[in-house]
Amino acid sequence: MNAIFKALNDETRRDILELLRKQEMTAGDIADQFHISKPSISHHLDILKRADLVTSEKKGQFVVYSLNTTIVDDILQWIITLKK
Amino acid sequence: MNAIFKALNDETRRDILELLRKQEMTAGDIADQFHISKPSISHHLDILKRADLVTSEKKGQFVVYSLNTTIVDDILQWIITLKK
DNA sequence: TAAATATTTAGACAAATATCTAAATATTAT
DNA sequence: ATAATATTTAGATATTTGTCTAAATATTTA
């Protein structure tokens, strides 16, 4: 749970998740959406991956990232519990 | 949204929210549940308050903290959107 | 095989954060 | 009024974090 909340505690990373909600994207395409260097985006993607919020698959020279909605359920569960 | 995720990005603060889920508590009673100094807990409570996740009310020399479930809904909404 | 393209790793640095102790403020009880 | 109790504020410090540039790795194309 720690890794998930840590991952969500950054606007750029939350924006990446919203991008991936619509479609999977390569690391480069993701980076192009921000005014941040590619290495920094790569680092953000790594944090999202460690939290299991995204998955990545190498396709040739590209790396395609996708949202992992399974883990999103875990956060939902945690927050819903607060309301019970 | 930033303040909310920032507030949730700490195990102690999440634990405080879970305590308050069951009942409202004074600052001192909350502090007693952790091996952390009272000033530090006071600081955590301040962050939770700025995020509107808790409310506080002074009762005599005590300050009673409660969970604010209205804001919890905002987080739910954000996360649910990720799944749509 | 050499050059080009895509991505990550490494190392550095400034800013943010969690924690502490000491002191200040507010309220209640003697 | 003074002492005791509850909480917050102030200031310091070590750690974590987001960012950058330069270099390394992997893949494709000429």
From TrEMBL, chains A, B:
- Is Transcription among this UniProt entry's keywords? yes
Q: Which residues form the HTH arsR-type domain?
A: 1-84
Question: What top-level branch of life does the organism fall under?
Answer: Bacteria
Entry's InterPro entries? Answer: ArsR-like_HTH, HTH_ArsR_DNA-bd_dom, HTH_MetalResp_TranReg, SdpR-like_repress, WH-like_DNA-bd_sf, WH_DNA-bd_sf
A single MF term (Gene Ontology): DNA binding
Work out whether the entry's keyword set contains Transcription.
yes
Q: Which UniProt keywords apply?
A: DNA-binding, Transcription, Transcription regulation
Pfam families reported in the protein's UniProt record: HTH_5
Protein name (Swiss-Prot/TrEMBL): ArsR family transcriptional regulator
Question: Which organism is the protein's source?
Answer: Flavobacterium cheniae
